[in-house]
Amino acid sequence: MRAAVLHEIGQDKLEVLDDIETVGFGPGKVKIRIRATGLCHSDISAMNGVLPQPAPFIPGHEGAGEITDIGDGVTGLKQGDRVLMCWLPACGSCPACKRGQSQLCLAGFMNAGTPNFRRPGGDVFGFAGTGTFAEELVVDAGCAVPIPDDVPYDIAALIGCGVTTGLGAAINTAQVTAGSSVAVIGCGGVGISTIQGARVRGAAQIIAVDPVESRREAALRFGATEAVAPDALGDAKQRITGGEGFDYVFEVVGKSATARTAYETTRRGGTLCIVGAGAMDDFLQLNMFELFFDEKRILPSMYGGGDVLHSYERAIALWRAGRIDLESLITHRVQLPEINEALNQMRTGEALRTCIEL
């Protein structure tokens, strides 16, 4: 089968090969034929080494397709089921799951160190234990979440990561209050979803911040009340909040520099929500006095900060009701052989989300 492979960390292009095989099928596993997958910035972060991932590997974790085979012991799923990919399935029995924080379950991360593909040259890993830039893959049954018949594969793929992450940051983690002021720094697919979540929660003012003009324009269509370039954020803070700062600021870039800007843009007693996934050697500097004196809440948001199965259902319900726009998040579509074109669209900021159709 075909798949897009990164041979070494640090390479900026993927090679589409047709000699890939899935491995690991057996009890508790399912085989999925991928029909659509989104390109998330985390895929690029894994390629360049910002996020840890063994290589060679197949990127992609935001996918949807249909089940083609079921391993022994799997219940609640059958061949032909339409499913989206949950790259962080909850085990249900670890301390985090028992506390109701299933998004912090580490069971899914263990899969990242086990190859789930093979080619004549040796083992190939799947990013985050998945690897949706492949026509087929084998995963734990918990990674396959059934979707209703009215949800297209491309929409379901987005719900599998970016939409859930962004909506959840505003709704679950920060719990944006009605009438509040919000700033979102970084307006790709996740940032736009954060904007939509803040709008659903009733924020009165939503300021989108991004260096790419097309993304700022898109943010206005998705519910931002104003969109500015990063160098204009200070002026917006002064005009809109009288210099006090915003009630909620979301950092959706994953860099310490933008996180520091976000902290300074948050009002005293306000909430800074960290959504972007950054590098382990990129440190955010805060002094002990400002932490105490400003009393700003700093809330990291992992995969939307809540039970992902409930978050999937909520996203579908909001989409059906017309409260959020998911179709327009997909600004580009490519076939798998054009995957490097999609990578360029992401790196330049041209695309909000590119859908790779398999």
Keywords:
seven-stranded mixed beta sheet, alpha/beta, 12 helices, 358 residues, six-stranded parallel beta sheet
What is the radius of gyration computed over CA atoms, rounded to a whole number of angstroms? 20 Å
Instruction: Give the tally of β-strands.
Output: 19
pLDDT below 50 for ≥5 consecutive residues: which ranges? none
What's the overall geometry?
globular
Query: How would a textbook summarize the main sheet?
Result: 7 strands, mixed
Q: Can you give the helix content as a percent range? A: 25-40%
Which oligomerization state do the chains in this entry correspond to? Answer: single chain
Strand share of the residues? 25-35%
Q: How many helix segments?
A: 12
Look at the helices and sheets and give the structural class. alpha/beta
Terminus-to-terminus distance: 11 Å
Mean pLDDT: 96
Protein described:
The relative contact order is 0.16. This protein has helices at 41-47, 95-98, 107-110, 153-159, 162-173, 189-200, 213-221, 233-241, 256-265, 288-294, 308-320, 339-348, and strands at 3-5, 15-17, 21-22, 29-38, 57-58, 62-70, 82-85, 117-119, 122-126, 136-140, 144-146, 181-185, 205-209, 226-228, 246-251, 266-274, 297-300, 330-335, 353-357. It has 358 residues and is α/β, with parallel strands linked by helices. Helix content is 29%, strand content 26%. The model has no long low-confidence stretch (mean pLDDT 96). The strands form four sheets. Strands 4, 6, 7, 10, 11, 18 and 19 form a seven-stranded mixed beta sheet that branches. A six-stranded parallel beta sheet has the order 14-13-12-15-16-17, with helices on both faces. The chain is globular. Strand 16 (266-274), helix 10 (288-294) and strand 17 form a beta-alpha-beta unit. It contains twelve helices and 19 strands. It starts with a strand and ends with a strand.
